[in-house]
Specification:
Number of helices: 8
Radius of gyration: 19 Å
Shape: globular
Strand order of the largest sheet: 6-7-8-3-9-10
Bound molecules: adenosine-5'-triphosphate, magnesium ion
Distance between the termini: 46 Å
Number of strands: 10
Structural class: alpha/beta
Strand content: 25-35%
Largest sheet: 6 strands, mixed
């Protein structure tokens, strides 16, 4: 079953140029991607190639100008409570405590109060922040805020989970333990996850498939199947197969990162 079909999607932005006029920046062009129900798919690509733009479009937070997107065989709707997003920056409400932030999605789902509280506490424990339940976001470190944002979306249990570099701001140990935790949760209820990362290792450890994007305008250059056994643990990094996949992915990405650097030099 297909969860998402992105067919020849295009997205342009109008930007100001140095002369005060307007230029058109083509961010996604001829972007094609089929996402299967229940799969864990990662998007890898150079900075600025349109990964967040695509996720924002899927989340209904941004528009696209060309092509079509189907979610559950229906044209993408702007508002849909079945999707949940973890942003590149944490997006917590400053006037709510950590626990109250976790409860936002559950309130939208109209979960009864006591169940809401229990669920929020359970997921807070999962990310190791029970002791901070009644603090406000400004009293937490950046990594802790991101863990709250992750716990919030996991507690919400959307059918389509969109994660934009959710672990980028975390220290290495927390990052690794949350990767494994995320896999455990995903293996338990197999919701579709679209995960953006800059880390090749992270993409391989987590995913069923890794979609590698070109430099801007972004499109899917190649999809690599990750046939490593599950459940996976950190040890998988030491396997020969892991090294082989890593090398293949790296070669595909290297050219695209080179193109981005070149175009930035030309513009500078
Ligand atoms: N609202 C906007 N208006 C104008 N340009 C935008 C807008 N949003 C994104 N862009 C531009 O679109 C391009 C792609 O941005 P996007 O955030 O999707 O990249 P990304 O692949 O997520 O990069 P990164 O890996 O650095 O997060 C960038 O050049 C960015 O400047
Ligand atoms: Mg981004």
């Amino acid at each position: 079953m297909l969860k998402v079909r992105a067919d020849r999607v295009g997205r342009c932005f109008q930007i100001r140029n140095r002369q005060g006029g307007r230029d058109v920046l083509s961010v996604l062009d001829d972007f094609n991607l089929d996402i299967r129900e229940g799969e864990f798919i990662s998007l890898l690509g150079p900075s600025g190639c349109g990964k967040s733009t695509f996720l924002n479009i899927l989340a209904g937070l941004d528009d696209f100008d060309q092509g079509s997107i189907l979610v559950d065989s229906e044209r993408l709707k702007k508002r849909n409570f079945d999707r949940g997003m973890v942003f590149q920056s944490y997006a917590l409400l400053p006037w709510r405590t950590v626990l109250q932030n976790l409860e936002i999605g559950l309130e939208i789902r109209r979960m009864p109060r006591r169940e809401r509280r229990e669920t929020a506490q359970r997921y807070l424990q999962l990310v190791g922040l029970s002791a901070f339940a009644h603090q406000y976001p400004h009293q937490l470190s950046g990594g802790m805020r991101q863990r709250v944002a992750i716990a919030r979306v996991l507690a919400y249990r959307p059918n389509l989970l969109l994660m934009d570099e959710p672990f980028a701001a975390l220290d290495a140990q927390t990052r690794e333990s949350l990767q494994i935790e995320l896999l455990r949760i995903w293996e338990a209820d197999k919701k579709t996850i679209v995960f953006v990362t800059h880390s090749i290792d992270e993409a391989i450890i987590l995913s069923d498939r890794v979609a590698i994007m070109t430099a801007r305008p972004g499109r899917v250059k190649k999809i690599i199947d990750i046939n490593l056994p599950r459940p996976r643990s950190e040890d998988i990094r030491n396997s020969l197969e892991f090294a082989r996949i890593r090398q293949a992915v790296w070669l595909l990405i290297r050219d695209e990162v080179g193109k981005t650097e070149q175009s930035q030099r030309i513009r500078a």
